[in-house]
Design brief:
single chain; mainly beta; 5-stranded mixed β-sheet
């Protein structure tokens, strides 16, 4: 007996109902005492608040009805029910065979008690008046459940337990239901790997025959797999076989793994994985003779032992194809199979061949082709001959296409991607293509498949596209850090299935010290329900280039671009498409005020000739096209297929800029097996100017129209970190007074110039992870990348600093460059009147001798004036990075569907670079979907 105290229940006692799943038992038959009979518990009803054990419920009554044939048996004179509160007396009597005037004996009365207890409505039943024939049925009803309370559950949430248990408030309490619920809760914890969990149910009696049921839960530790033993293996080591299993031994190296807990279902899965491993390596006779999981005495760990028989290793024997379909020539088909005689037997190749033959039959319209491999095992020669028998089938036609599961997306958006129509001859390739196109929309959950089933006739096929929609809105926030720019923030909102019509609506904002932009766009993929895509963009981009003077950031030039682009596209074939576009942009390029002379002209010495040449406002009117080939199985997460595009833009259809920009882009994906996905991406571009000859040191393509290369297209390098640039490195002196170049990167002016030619190549492998990591949405990859940017004209040097040689030490010293200051009105050199001239001392004039207040009045006086000059500190100007030599980086990245949204982290190291390139090790961005 257990006594507990709970303040919320007042003075009501808390009594033990059950201890674990062990219940005390109750005599199955009532005994007649003192002229009465009783069943179901102690005599009379227990007082409220008293603690008592609840015995095991009696077994339900079975067998035929009791018939009293004793001629001397007494008859029931009167029949009364006492103690019922909620249940009517007539209802109580309906559960028995007792009636007034009926003969009775002890057997009939005993059966009546059993029947009442079996109804689960009563906690106690007794019968009195047996001797007199005035029968009184005294019953004590089972209480009503007021509340069901769970205590101690931390690892399992309350809602997961309550939906499994049967006891609910306002139901009738029974001991059987309690015992069953205890078993259910224990089973839930065992599924979680907690085999030491113990459940103690308790009851608090309340007034009005009500009770609160409390399940006190001791969850216990999670039972781990301490050890996996394998007996009978000789060819493969224990380590190799454990590596095939989903279950892992609990070790420090598997601390974060969820597969170290024991799971009965996983035990069966591991046996299948072991068998598959042996069968794919030629051991056709392999079998697991026993698999035993033993729980340690402390119930904390399991020890799993497998006993295996490896058998002999087989090779493929004769491989033939026997086809009952007239369109299939068995010999020709067999010659094209990947299985060859003499190769080691591989069950996976057999399964793949069956699938391949069925798909080949589907290509010519046989939807329900059935290929059965017939094995001929020769234990003497250790060969496995196989005959693939393709059973006779009828050519099939599409009877109906069902689209279900779409609540937001309109039917037509899905149906227009299906390559078959009702009534068409069935073609498995077209079904697969339709499936890939629907997956590529990105509107539905991954691994969508079009199911096929038998139609109303053997030659009819029903296609079912049962989709499961997912979020198509994307709200992304990208955050980056650069030693050049500090923080970079990008925000965008996109709805890829606007109004369920497949339309795309997007808006984005970019903010950093480097650039600011706003972009609005819209795309209609099917104009007027025709296979014509049309769209447009409005944008404003504010780009600020900058450098450093000491540790101070200084803006060099600004570019504000405002414009729009309209585009349209049509398919040429299933895989080829053509897109055209027209764009109009107004560019305003200016320099910071510090780069202008007092007369408003650009100070070439301060800014550089390449920046001075960029100043101005211009219109760019361009028309372009793209020729695209796309056979990817998914545009979002492709695993197979390829994509190629050739794009050209012609600027000069009006406006102030004339050039031809050409770009080529190609990507190929391949499934490498075992979950690895390989991809190869190459791209390149070239800008050809249509303008006339330019002065020496001036490139025909303006700095604002060139290609740029770096993050994020080239991990391992900073934004615009690859390609031609001009650097200015100031001079300083060391402790000995020797003139040296500054080494502090923040003190070096670094202006990226862009390039007219570029190429990039990237080889990447996506790495598969375990089921736990996949559930978290982790998709890591490793890659190597090479590329270059070059092809601009070397700018004219902006300064020529004089150099002096110390006659004593022989050291060369670069001196500042001194230039005269010009009058902003006349453009003539300025002079300063010496302090000895009383009237005009310290004033500036254009007169070398005397003084004149303006350029139009004569010089008056005899003072010899000093020239006004400005001095530019010496620096080393270098033109770097203009090389087609490949820059190479290697890196690893991971995509993670985190609670904060999709997160991408890259760590890339530049193996090879050219002098002047800016490298960067780590980048990341984060977003979310709605």
């Amino acid at each position: 007996m257990t006594a507990i105290k709970v303040s919320t229940f007042g003075k009501h006692a808390l009594v033990t109902l059950l201890a674990g799943t062990v219940l005390s038992t109750m005599p199955s038959a009532a005994a007649a005492q003192g002229g009465g009979m009783r069943g179901g518990g102690q005599r009379g009803a227990a007082p409220r608040g008293a603690a008592q054990p609840i015995p095991m419920p009696p077994a339900p009554a079975t067998g035929a009805a009791v018939v009293v044939s004793d001629p001397n048996a007494k008859k029931i004179l009167t029949l009364r029910v006492e103690g019922s509160q909620r249940i009517e007396p007539e209802t109580v009597l309906s559960y028995t065979r007792l009636r007034v005037g009926v003969a009775y004996n002890n057997e009939l009365l005993d059966q009546a008690i059993k029947d009442l207890l079996a109804s689960d409505l009563f906690a106690d039943v007794s019968i009195s008046g047996v001797e007199s024939g005035n029968i009184v049925l005294r019953v004590r009803e089972n209480p009503i459940i007021n509340r069901v309370i769970l205590e101690g559950n931390k690892r399992l949430k309350e809602d997961k337990i309550t939906k499994e248990i049967k006891l609910k408030p306002r139901q009738i309490f029974t001991r059987t239901a309690v015992r069953q619920d205890v078993a259910r809760i224990v089973e839930l914890y065992r599924r979680q790997g907690r085999f030491a969990a113990a459940i103690e149910p308790k009851m608090v009696t309340l007034d009005q025959n009500r009770v609160d049921i409390i399940f006190e839960i001791n969850e216990g530790p999670k039972s781990k797999v301490r050890q996996i033993n394998i007996l009978g293996n000789e060819v493969f080591s224990d380590k190799a076989l454990r590596g095939q299993m989903a279950t892992k031994e609990a070790r420090l190296t598997t601390l974060l793994s969820s597969n170290t807990s024991y799971d009965q279902d996983r035990l069966a899965y591991d046996q299948q994985k072991m068998r598959q491993f042996y069968l794919t390596n030629g051991y056709a006779d392999f079998r697991v003779t026993s698999a035993v999981a033993e729980l340690t005495p402390d119930k904390k760990d399991f020890i799993i032992t497998y006993v295996v028989e490896e058998g002999k290793r087989y090779k493929f024997g004769d491989v033939t194809v026997d086809s009952d379909i007239r369109d299939f020539d068995g010999k020709k088909v067999a010659a094209g199979l990947s299985i060859k005689k003499g190769d080691w037997y591989d069950a996976k190749k057999v399964e793949d061949t069956v699938d391949s033959l069925n798909q080949s039959a589907g290509l010519v319209g046989y939807a329900f082709a059935d290929t059965n491999p017939e094995f001929n095992r020769d234990k003497d020669t250790l060969t496995m001959g196989i005959n693939f028998h393709i059973a006779e089938a009828k050519r099939s036609y599409v009877e109906r296409i069902n689209v279900t599961g779409n609540t937001q997306t309109q039917d037509k958006v899905i149906r227009r991607e299906i390559r078959l129509a009702e009534g068409d001859a069935f073609n498995s390739f077209q079904v697969k293509r339709s499936q890939d196109r629907i997956n590529s929309l990105g509107y539905f959950q991954d691994k969508f498949e079009i199911k096929q089933s038998q139609g109303s006739a053997p030659d009819r096929v029903v296609l079912d596209a049962n989709v499961e929609e997912k979020s198509t809105g994307e709200l992304s926030l990208s955050v980056g850090y650069s030693s050049l720019e500090n923080f970079i923030i990008q925000a965008s909102i996109t709805q890829r299935n606007f109004r369920g019509k497949g339309q795309e609506l997007r808006a984005s904002v970019n903010y950093s010290s480097y650039s600011k932009s706003v972009n609005l766009g819209f795309t209609e993929p099917y104009l007027f329900n025709k296979n014509i895509a049309i769209g447009g963009d409005l944008f404003r981009r504010d780009y600020n280039a900058f450098n450093f003077s000491g540790s101070d950031r200084q803006t060099t030039y600004t570019q504000v671009s405002t414009g729009f682009q309209i585009r349209a596209g049509v398919p040429l074939t299933e895989y080829w498409s053509l897109a055209g576009r027209y764009g109009l942009t107004y560019d305003q390029v200016g320099l910071n005020g510090q780069y202008f002379n007092s007369d408003g002209s650009c100070n070439v010495l301060a800014a550089g000739s390449y920046l001075c040449q960029a100043i101005g406002n211009r219109w760019t009117s361009s028309v372009g096209y793209s020729l695209i080939f796309d056979s990817l199985n998914s545009r979002l997460r492709p695993t197979a297929g390829q994509k190629f595009s050739l794009s050209q833009d012609f600027a000069g259809l009006g406006g102030d800029v004339r050039y031809v920009r050409t770009r080529v882009d190609a990507t190929k994906y391949k499934n490498l097996g075992a979950g690895f996905i390989g991809s190869l991406h190459v791209e390149g571009g070239y800008i050809f100017s249509l303008e006339g000859k330019k002065p020496a040191g001036v490139d025909k393509i303006r700095i604002t129209d060139r290609f740029y290369l770096g993050e994020p297209d080239f991990p391992g390098f900073d934004i615009r970190g690859v390609g031609p640039r001009v650097t200015r490195t100031p001079y300083t002196t060391d402790a000995t007074g020797k003139q040296i170049l500054v080494t502090d990167k923040n003190s070096i002016v670094d202006d990226a110039l862009g390039g007219n030619k570029y190429y990039v190549g990237r080889l990447e492998v996506q790495i598969p992870l375990g089921s736990g990591a996949r559930e978290l949405g982790l998709r890591p990859s490793i890659y190597v990348q090479a590329g270059a940017l070059w092809g601009v004209t070397k700018p004219v040097a902006t300064a020529n600093f004089p150099t002096t040689i110390d006659p004593v030490t022989g050291r060369a010293t670069v001196q500042p460059q001194v230039t005269p200051v010009l009058d902003s009105t006349s453009g003539k050199p300025l002079f300063a009147v010496p302090a000895t001239d009383g009237a005009n001392a310290g004033l500036q004039t254009i007169c070398a001798v005397g003084y004149s207040a303006s350029a139009t009045t004569p010089c008056v006086g005899s003072s010899v004036n000093n020239a006004v000059t400005s001095s530019t500190a010496p620096f080393l100007e270098q033109f770097l990075g203009n090389s087609g030599a490949p820059r190479i980086s290697v890196g690893a990245g991971v995509n993670w569907n985190s609670p904060f949204g999709p997160l991408r982290i890259d760590i890339a190291y530049a193996l090879k670079k050219v002098k002047g390139d800016d490298t960067k090790l780590v980048t990341f961005n984060v977003g979310t979907q709605f």
